């Protein structure tokens, strides 16, 4: 049996795949792209067609778009901005669309298309299905990646040479062999079950409905101004509504009370009318039920099998971290798998994947939990839309509370860019410690383990544009030892690009004359005199 091929891939048979990736969502496709750009033969399988209009994620944050930039996809995604890049990325808290304003957070998630000194790409408000389409186009363009839809992962076993997996489509089963297996197959991961990993934490601590609807005339029916989301705190409780795509396509999210897990179209439209206070003939396009969880796998790998994305970490949605964190997994695991397959990594490199990513996931989950909406007393909600001194006093108090507490959910650069891998077994020890975590404010640092500090070159390019696919050694004009660094890299087969950027005071930016940047744009080592750190930073 051969699964239906939906993308041109290498004409290889069983036993010739470098990596089998299960799950073709953003994480699986991102991993396939990172591997494919490095010439790895990748078999990417997905059991669903991944169609529909009900995205979980709507925010592609600045770090993810920076990763897309390295894949030459950031500009492509910008072209697909459904509301236009200049559409205000504001979060407005209101009692309802028909009611009163409470608080506003401008430029949420740093999505305004302005040039920032600290990072090369702004965020973008865009439905996940649009991002997936662009990733899929890239996957289909890579000659060493083969994408198969409608194919399920059933089981696998492994030995010292590779993994032996059983897959199936509607026609039957097939056997596939590969050097490595990655489960990017979501919250109900079959690969996670196959390696015996368990999710630890809280499952389903809140329950929600997500509704996609066509709201013709809705944008003109309220007076709150343009925003990407209107968070409604009113007599009917807490809900969110906002424009999602062209052709008057909107989203609406609300709590699921009791044990209900389904809604009729009539019930869905009635909830929207009640919460917004606006009576229009809403057309329900899609609806689904979901639960909010904070879960981490007790392990991320077993031998040659690894987990990424929701398969090993699940976040409450507050802060927009989930899908973006999964893309970060794809980058981290992708370059390490490629290095191992290409023969220039030691046994410790793949072992560093969990050591680096799991603490980051824990911090981000804690941040998302802290952003979980706090409930308000029912007596406050019942009068919050009263046109009376009592109603005005409640609105003033609730608005002040929102303004004081919700900024960390929408202004997140300190979490998105500031978390460090310091203490990783493949990061050099430095006399200086990374900056303390500040969820909202990002303070660039060149301490090894931190994201490489960014700068713009005189010609308008980003410093990141000079980084190579392997390691990059940034060197000040007066730096010595460059030939030795090149020789050390050549001896171990480590790909190295040496860059002496014009117009940048490297010592001021990085605190040293030399800085070694990893393939994922994090600092591996820095110093004023070259030291052979390649055995350390490649896990040898």
Topology:
Elements: E1 17-22, H1 26-36, E2 42-46, E3 59-60, H2 62-70, H3 74-79, E4 91-94, E5 101-105, E6 124-125, H4 128-141, E7 145-149, E8 152-158, E9 163-169, E10 172-183, H5 190-195, E11 199-214, E12 229-234, E13 237-245, E14 249-255, H6 265-276, E15 283-297, E16 301-302, E17 305-307, E18 313-314, H7 322-342, H8 347-370, H9 378-383, H10 389-405, H11 407-410, H12 413-418, E19 471-475, H13 482-492, E20 496-499, H14 506-510, E21 514-517, E22 523-527, H15 534-537
Parallel strand pairs: 1-2, 1-10, 2-7, 4-12, 10-17, 19-20
Antiparallel strand pairs: 3-6, 4-5, 8-9, 9-10, 11-14, 11-15, 12-13, 13-14, 15-18, 16-17, 19-21, 21-22
Helix pairs in contact: 1-4, 1-7, 7-8
Q: Can you tell me about this structure?
A:
With 540 residues, this protein is an alpha/beta fold. The protein contains 15 helices and 22 strands. The strands form 4 sheets. Strands 1, 2, 7, 8, 9, 10, 16 and 17 form an 8-stranded mixed sheet that branches. The chain has an 8-stranded mixed sheet with strand order 5-4-12-13-14-11-15-18. Helix 1 runs parallel beside helix 7 (322-342) and helix 7 (322-342) runs antiparallel to helix 8 (347-370). The longest helix is centred in the middle third of the chain and has 24 residues, at 347-370.
Rg from alpha-carbon coordinates = 24 Å
| Residue-averaged pLDDT | 93
Runs with pLDDT <50, length 5+?
Answer: 1-14
Percent strand:
15-25%
Number of strands: 22
With helices defined by DSSP (H or I, 4 residues minimum), what is the helix count?
15
Tell me the quaternary state.
Answer: single chain
Q: Structural class, from helix and strand content?
A: alpha/beta
Helix content: 25-40%
